[in-house]
Prior knowledge:
The chain has a single domain, classed as Formate dehydrogenase/DMSO reductase fold, CATH 1.20.1630. The chain contains 12 helices and 2 strands; from the N terminus they run H-H-H-H-H-H-H-H-H-H-H-E-E-H. It is mostly helical.
Amino acid sequence: xxxxxxxxxAIAVLFTGYFVLEGFDFGVGALLPYLPKEERxxxxxxxxIGPGWxxxxxxxxxxxxxxxxxxxxxxxxxxxxxxLPLLLILLALIVRGVAFEYRGKHNGRxxxxxxxxxxxxxxxxxxxxxxxxxxxxxxxxxxxxKHEFVGTFWDLLNPFALLGGLTTLALFVTHxxxxxxxxxxxxxxxxxxxxxxxxxxxxxxxxIAFLTWxxxxxxxxxxxxxxxxxxxxxxxxMVANFFGREGRAFLGSAAALGAATISLFAALYPDVLPSTVxxxxxxxxxxxxxxxxxxxIMTWVAVVFLPLVLLYQSWTYWAFRRRIGVxxxxxxx
Length: 333
């Protein structure tokens, strides 16, 4: 195994961590207009993800930094070819972050209602577009011999990528509902469990279709096996949710998202961005990578700092592990 292989695996792990952790944040934001009946229940939902949402985004920042340093050609082509969807994702994340910070600065109903809309769209847009981006990475895009994107934005909206977008949106909504059932008390907990029962079935159908299509295009033995694991973990999680075992349900949905993400990277390997206008124009872990010296330096930096980041985030979730309910929220005036 070379350093190129190791850093490809590292990027897969970082995006897996991001989709698993930020996935339920997106799901909670998408459910914000539908589950709560009154303001304190909205605050319960926001409080469930409040301590960790910004830390979860660190996984995306780290993935982007590693991508740029370890595979600069991949990063450059990705950002030029996916400029508009990635820009929309970035803008949505900015709007969502501002909404978290500003929503509680004023007690006016209109003020909070507008920021709630920002939280909703700031969650739904990335949840959908990440699936579109990942779908196009697996499928490949139009690259010429200089590894430059020669297609159009509309080429990215192909049936496979759109199915990927619907799949990630449904998976994240269910993952968020399962998380709320685990993290809250009272009516929100009961409603979240009911939402997960229904959306979990929709997500399962979409995920099976998307992952099967992906494996048919690019699959290997390892990626097919991981797909089977993902489907099994999702089924186990939904059964646990039905019987009110919130902890097991969340572990199941998290394991399913993780296995599904890694299965797509395993199907892609050793390519990192295939070309649809000639396989020789595609990018792989060799022609997209930095110099061996750069990868060596990055490896030592990761060995030192990665455990610290993991310890800090683990402590954060442990410190805020208790359930919350409306009795933990002061009455609004």
